[in-house]
Automatic annotation (TrEMBL):
Residues 1-18 have a biased composition (Polar residues). Residues 175-250 form the Ubiquitin fusion degradation protein UFD1 N-terminal subdomain domain. GO terms for molecular function: polyubiquitin modification-dependent protein binding. Residues 650-677 form the Ubiquitin-protein ligase E3A N-terminal zinc-binding domain. Residues 1-26, 140-160 are annotated as: Disordered. This is Uncharacterized protein. Residues 277-406 form the DUF7590 domain. One of its GO terms (biological process) is ERAD pathway. One of its GO terms (cellular component) is VCP-NPL4-UFD1 AAA ATPase complex. Signal peptide: none annotated. Pfam families: AZUL (PF16558), DUF7590 (PF24503), UFD1_N2 (PF24842), Znf_XAF1_N (PF23580).
Length: 780
């Protein structure tokens, strides 16, 4: 800190809120009451805040740039504002002291929402200060050591009578430039902790205190622990916000450095893809069989991106090793994580040589799945499946993985008894009551004497063992289910998988067995990561302030609690410009789609060379737009339409005899249009020839105003109308609109789209996709 920088002086004694009554805070964060913010603002030092040269100056309301007498008053007012300006330092940092053991730690502020006269501390801060929950640990003297010669069990502790009280001081720390960390265990690889450490400090810490233990969570339920040994500028702590921090990792001793180097070399030799390490994994295709290997305690991850969504998916793993398991999870907006022992949708923990899943296309877990994640896992034989440390087993375990698709069989499968599989025996044979074998009746007494003396039958599973065999000595049956085995390793593994209590790493819930925990973490766990369809971020499906998963509104909406809250934001509909909530946008767009499909087709001009729709100003009885009907209009009384029919006939006669003279004309019933489209000279036509051509065009025309005409016309029109008509006919013939090929629209909708888009092809296709029904589409 610079010597001339004003400091913030504030302190208070506050009670520690028990963690069960307060939200969990990360890193070094604390929560103070609202009154603390008011006291901090009152104690903030006065300091000038000059306006930057590149920032526009904000003048007072009385300043007039055209009045020179206000310049002096404006200068004095600005000087008073700058002199009286109070500003809290950024970031706010505090020194927290436990007065009973003189332990201290630095912390950053999370928010000012704690109860009055209380402070909420993160778990790491409570551990450093020697506070268990919101109360003090045991009976300690001021130095933090247990008093000698006293019976701690008999003496009542202060924790049983009152909550812990800490002193919070406002303390401005210098910006750190260097920190030295010492790992507490050997074998850390810089590739493991470098990115994790950077993200962990950025997201969870404002300060670092010399001498504290920094715990960085890993990616496989592991953690890296470091001793914060030295900082620069030298002192008790530094601020790590808005600064370039150099981090140095130094071993605790030479022995640890040698051990770390040895473990790194062993890890490099057993890296994925090597002969002594696990296989790499990668993308799989249906019908492909992979021969691979996996080290104990590690995963090999695969991904299936393409498969026939209408067929049944079969995933099979075969191995001779009982400790290789198979886990599968779909990748979608509701499932984002790779399958693991404690987080998977489908899992096989059996000791059989073949692990197999048959996933039908109607399975609800496949809804919206972009890919299928498949993972092979080998559990350490000596520590159970929950271990994720370095494998104790030196050799990798081999397995084969295959993914196939089968057509869905709609006929119910029935179990048929195969008579050939029944054990056959000769007539006169009898069954031994001990080993259940069929023996001749004449030797039954000899067989039973030998069998009862050497063999024993397990009444629960029906298997026969030799009395002195290791299999019988280690034979076990689970008292909770029907599982059984013949060795202690399988019993330890079974108990570890199905009957060991596990705590969810994302919430306080506890479950018995890994399958129950995996089901929780992939369904109802508040901390399950989802891809929000509104903010498009990877977030927990339920935050601290979000409604419960079993809330009726959440269940009816079909959204997660986070999406229900995030979907409350509003946006503008791109079709109708109305303000709609994000979570209601799909329903709103379905209404637009229903209106689009239900809309009647527009009426277009019957002139086959015009690309306009009929408006209120058009002659709708004749079926012509105002542009095409304009040359035929006269202000005379013609109730039967005879004069109108003569004008139509003269129009055709003029077109075929002299032409319209327009350079863009492509009308087949115009001399000019014929000359433009024909490669040979056009011979002049007589009146008789023209009459033969035009009479079939004029006779079907209905000129009665009380009747609607349906006969087409072939008049010359303007360049805009002809261009729109050509564009509409092209799109209607292509059957292509919008971004998806194959959509076909009727000519009437194509004409309306060309008119709405002003002749722009891309805008026309966009308009058709929004407002026009596809040919043959029915409203549902």
């Amino acid at each position: 800190m610079a010597d001339n920088t004003p400091t913030l002086t504030w302190s208070a004694q506050l009670s520690v809120t028990p963690p069960q009554h307060a939200p969990r805070l990360p890193g070094d964060k604390i929560t103070l009451p609202q009154s603390a913010l008011e006291q901090l603002l009152a104690a903030a030092p006065l300091q000038p805040i000059p306006t930057p040269s590149n920032t526009a100056r904000v003048h007072t309301s009385t300043f007039d740039p055209f009045n020179p007498h206000t310049f002096a008053a404006e200068s004095r007012a600005r000087q008073q504002i700058e002199e009286r300006q109070q500003q809290l330092p950024h970031p706010l940092t505090f020194r927290i002291v436990n007065p009973l053991n003189d332990r201290f730690v630095y912390a950053g502020i999370r928010e000012f929402s704690a109860a009055e006269n209380e402070v909420v501390l993160s778990a790491g801060l409570r551990e450093v200060l020697g506070i268990e929950g919101g109360e003090l640990e045991g009976v300690n003297n001021v130095n933090g050591d247990n008093m000698e010669g006293e019976d701690v069990e008999r003496q009542p502790t202060r924790a049983q009578t009152e909550p812990a009280v800490v002193t919070v001081h406002a303390k401005q720390l210098p910006k750190g430039t260097y920190v030295r960390l010492r790992p507490l265990e050997a074998g850390y690889d810089p590739e493991d902790w470098k990115a994790l450490l950077e993200r962990h400090l950025r997201d969870n810490f404002t300060t670092l205190t010399t001498g504290e233990i920094l715990t960085v969570p890993g990616t496989r339920n592991e953690s890296f622990r470091f001793l914060l040994d030295k900082v620069f500028p030298e002192g008790d702590g530094i601020c790590v916000v808005d600064t370039d921090l150099e981090v140095d990792i130094v071993a605790l001793s030479e022995e640890q450095a040698r051990e770390t180097l040895q473990k790194r070399l062993e890890r490099a030799a057993r890296a994925p893809g090597t002969t002594s390490g696990s296989s790499v994994g990668g993308v799989l295709a249906t019908g492909e069989e992979v021969a691979a290997q996996v080290l104990a305690g590690e995963y090999v991850d695969y991904e299936l991106r393409e498969w026939n969504r209408e067929d049944e998916l079969e995933i099979e793993l075969t191995t001779d090793e009982p400790n290789v398991f198979l886990f599968v999870s779909p990748l979608g907006s509701r499932q984002q994580g790779r399958p693991r022992t404690d987080m998977h949708v489908w899992g096989d923990f059996s000791m059989q040589s073949s692990k197999r899943f048959k996933i039908r296309p109607t399975n609800v877990a496949l809804e919206g799945a972009e890919a299928i994640y498949v993972s092979a896992y080998a559990s350490p034989s000596d520590s159970g499946v929950e271990s994720s440390t370095l494998a104790q087993q030196k050799l990798p375990l081999r397995y084969n993985l295959r993914i196939t698709t089968n057509a869905v069989d709609t006929v119910d499968e029935t179990t048929e008894t195969d008579e050939s599989t029944e054990e056959s025996h000769a007539p006169g044979d009898v069954q031994c009551k001990n080993c259940q074998q069929w023996v001749p009746e004449r030797t039954l007494i000899l067989h039973e004497n030998f069998c009862l003396r050497n063999n024993i039958l397990c009444t629960q599973c029906g298997n026969v063992f030799q009395k002195r065999s290791p299999e019988w000595e280690n034979h076990w049956h689970c008292p909770h289910d029907s599982s059984h085995g013949n060795d202690t390793t399988s019993k330890v593994t079974h108990d570890s998988i199905y009957h060991k209590p596990y705590t969810c790493p994302d919430c306080p819930a506890q479950f018995e067995g890994l399958p129950n925990l995996a089901q929780h973490r992939t369904t109802s766990c508040p901390g399950k990561l989802i891809l929000c369809q509104f903010c498009h971020l990877l977030v927990p499906q339920q935050g601290e302030s979000d409604p419960d998963l079993h809330d009726p509104e959440v269940l009816l909406s079909g959204l997660t609690p986070h999406e229900l809250v995030d979907g409350g934001r509003t946006t503008e509909c791109h079709l109708c410009s109305k303000i709609i909530r994000l979570r209601d946008m799909n329903t709103h767009l379905r209404h637009h789609d229903l209106e689009r499909v239900s809309r009647p087709p527009p009426r277009i001009c019957l002139n086959q060379n015009c690309g306009r729709t009929l408006t209120s100003a058009s002659n709708k009885s004749l079926g012509l737009c105002n542009i095409c009907y304009g040359p035929l209009y006269v202000d005379t009384y013609d109730p039967e339409g005879k004069a109108l029919r003569r004008r139509i006939e003269r129009r055709y006669l003029s077109q075929l005899m002299t032409g319209c003279g327009k350079p863009w004309c492509q009308n087949a019933y115009c001399k000019t249009g014929k000359q433009k489209t024909s490669t040979e000279p056009v011979a002049p036509m007589s009146v008789a020839d023209i009459t033969k051509v035009t009479r079939p065009l004029i006779e079907p025309v209905t000129v009665n105003p009380d009747m609607t005409n349906t006969a087409p016309f072939y008049f010359c029109t303007d360049e805009t109308g002809q261009h729109r008509r050509n564009l509409a006919e092209m799109v209607a013939a292509e059957g292509v609109a919008g971004d998806v090929a194959g959509k076909a629209y009727d000519l009437a909708w194509c004409v309306a789209g060309a008119e709405a888009a002003g002749g722009d092809l891309e805008k026309m296709r966009e308009w058709l996709g929004k407002w026009a029904p596809v040919r043959g589409e029915i409203a549902r």
